[in-house]
């Protein structure tokens, strides 16, 4: 037990509604990175995943939220969305090779523990706490629960610096660091260092071949007679959510995969967190709706600090429609509204041609089996070096006339 653990009562809850929403969100606001972190760690978002049946034991996501309550006044002092999982789908920090290695040696890998937002490759707060002491105690409680449940491992995915300060404070806990690369756009002219004045200013900052390519792709969509409208918050109607879900579902099915999310989820988060959603709806030349993309926004009022490209779908095939719906429309909106950062999600080197740069995001991993922990530690040390080399190589192909350096993920 850590010195701080004696100050708290640990409760593991299996239903998000067992934790008061206002108390959870207060801890999120107290996190150094919580003020502009998007909707994903809000209680309403996580509860919607549960209520809609998207993240439940039936889908391989069993909530084991670890919470700490002060012994004196019984207040919520720390909390983390831990899920006990029977697979590795929907995480975006891939450990399939680790599972296969366990299996080859006759060691069970599943169930495992994951502290993450299901189906969401967006970095943000993961260890919510009222202060650093409570956050350190939370790390001990998470590992204690993983051991008590006989889990093979504990994975804290895509967190922030305050989380890593807590996980790394006690070397005896051995949470191994892992770096992965995403692609983010920053509203910062590579030469002036100031926000882009407008869309043409952004285009002018790009190299000639990239600028030409973007204009060609946008012309193809316009020549097909496709137009877009942007709707935010309360302007997104129930019919819009139903249409979006239809597009999203069909696109998943066309790629041979069942969708992770359903209309009940989208409707619930749309109602609970309206100002944190921006939807682009595409219409063909006859005015028929044919596609939609959904962007999440940080909770900063009229001028959010960050936007997160999340989901899209189409009912008709139009050349370059995906690029228009998922990159050019959102980026133009971000420039017009002074948004500082647009995150394009996991993977995708093609995003660099659309002005997104490689950005490092971080995770931590604890493995119960000592031999596998040593093997993974060795692997991750080599992977981190390879990731650094990969990012350096990508920077040589930056799309700007004068390439800026992309920072690590915002803390």
TrEMBL record:
PANTHER family (alphabetical): ACYL-COA
Stored Pfam families: FemAB_like
Protein name (record): Peptidogalycan biosysnthesis/recognition
Domain of life assignment: Bacteria
InterPro entries according to UniProt: Acyl_CoA_acyltransferase, FemAB-like
Organism: Tepidimonas thermarum
């Amino acid at each position: 037990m850590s010195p701080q653990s004696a100050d708290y009562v640990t409760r593991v809850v299996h239903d998000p509604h067992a934790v008061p929403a206002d108390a959870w969100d207060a801890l999120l606001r107290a996190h150094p990175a919580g003020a502009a972190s998007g909707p994903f760690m809000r209680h309403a978002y996580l509860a919607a995943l549960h209520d809609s049946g998207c993240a439940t034991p039936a889908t391989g996501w069993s909530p084991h939220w670890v919470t700490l309550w002060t012994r004196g006044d019984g207040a919520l002092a720390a909390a983390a969305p831990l899920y006990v999982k029977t697979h590795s789908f929907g995480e975006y920090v891939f450990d399939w090779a680790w599972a296969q290695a366990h299996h080859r040696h006759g060691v069970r890998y599943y169930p495992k523990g994951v502290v993450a937002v299901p189906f969401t490759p967006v970095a943000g707060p993961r260890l919510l706490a009222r202060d650093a002491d409570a956050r350190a105690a939370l790390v001990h409680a998470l590992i204690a629960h993983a051991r008590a449940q006989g889990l093979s491992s504990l994975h804290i995915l895509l967190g922030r610096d305050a989380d890593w300060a807590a996980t790394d404070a006690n070397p005896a806990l051995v949470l191994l660091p892992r770096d992965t690369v995403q692609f983010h756009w920053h509203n910062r002219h590579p030469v002036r260092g100031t926000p882009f004045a407008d869309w043409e200013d952004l285009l002018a900052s790009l190299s000639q071949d990239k600028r030409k390519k973007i204009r060609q792709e946008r012309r193809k969509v316009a020549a097909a007679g496709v137009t877009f409208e942007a709707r935010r918050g309360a302007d997104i109607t129930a019919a819009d959510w139903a249409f979006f879900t239809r597009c999203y579902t069909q696109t998943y099915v066309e790629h041979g995969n069942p969708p992770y999310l359903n209309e009940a989820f989208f409707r619930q988060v749309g109602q609970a967190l309206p100002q944190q959603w921006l939807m682009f709806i595409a219409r063909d030349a006859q005015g028929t709706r044919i596609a939609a993309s959904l962007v999440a926004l940080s909770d900063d009022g009229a001028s959010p600090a960050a936007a997160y490209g999340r989901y899209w779908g189409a009912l008709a095939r139009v050349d370059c429609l995906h690029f228009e719906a998922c990159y050019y429309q959102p980026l133009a909106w971000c420039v017009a509204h002074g948004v500082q950062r647009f995150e394009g999600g996991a993977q995708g080197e093609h995003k660099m041609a659309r002005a997104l740069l490689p950005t490092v995001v971080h995770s931590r991993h604890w493995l119960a089996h000592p031999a596998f922990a040593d093997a993974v530690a060795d692997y991750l040390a080599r992977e981190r070096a390879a990731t650094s080399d990969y990012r350096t190589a990508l920077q040589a192909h930056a799309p700007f006339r004068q390439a800026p350096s992309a920072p690590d993920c915002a803390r």
